[in-house]
């Protein structure tokens, strides 16, 4: 099936019924809103029955309306501007119970990630990190926080970690230009995908380095470039992305790497505790 639902609608439009053409027209003109509507709401908005919307999804080849809505969401997440995201949020979130909605959505994304993550790919990523000559971690825009977190902890356990900072394009390449065979490039990117991260991964691959991608799904530009891909679900929450599941996946990677080096890990943190105590890194609390 074609990934872009708009192209699919355009291809099949001639054989749609009158009601289905109304749905197709609305989706084509308002895909940013349609992607987050229930079948019932989409039907009421267009002026057709919920069953007509469900049949429309089946006509396009989707396994029911949830499959079509997911396809719409996958398509729009990398197209929407921050302003459009806010407008969509007004339609879908409201202001009555934001706390419950956002936390419940994060729980769903964690469960989806746990259900779908590939243990073999996870193990491959851990082995590649442990065997790497040098590890380069790259995350731009909203993924900068994920990259910094990963770099902070891996740098405590390993001596060969380099966090590539989100600067100009030329400076990014200056930070990775020594990468080559035996090295590992870890790219982290979520919609809207950073073009600098993708291009940096392509450069790393061209030198013979192993590329690991942490991203949201098979519509990611990492597909076809990265040697190993780990998927962690993300979702739009108004103008921002929920990155709870990616953070949890990165936590798992860090812990797995640490437990592969138990003696080294203990020695490292004994030394760090002495330094932290000597230089008052942490506030001392009275017993």
Description of the structure:
This protein has 287 residues and is an alpha/beta fold. It has 14 helices and seven strands. It has helices at residues 5-12, 18-29, 31-34, 39-46, 50-59, 65-76, 82-92, 98-116, 119-131, 144-157, 169-176, 195-206, 244-259, 262-278; strands spanning 135-139, 161-164, 184-188, 210-215, 228-231, 235-237, 240-242. It has a five-stranded parallel sheet, with helices on both faces. A two-stranded antiparallel ribbon has the order 6-7. Helix 12 links the parallel strand 3 and strand 4 (210-215). Helix 4 (39-46) packs across helix 5, helix 8 packs across helix 13 (244-259) and helix 10 runs parallel beside helix 13. The longest helix has 19 residues, at 98-116. It is elongated. It starts with a helix and ends in a 9-residue tail after the last helix. The mean pLDDT is 85.
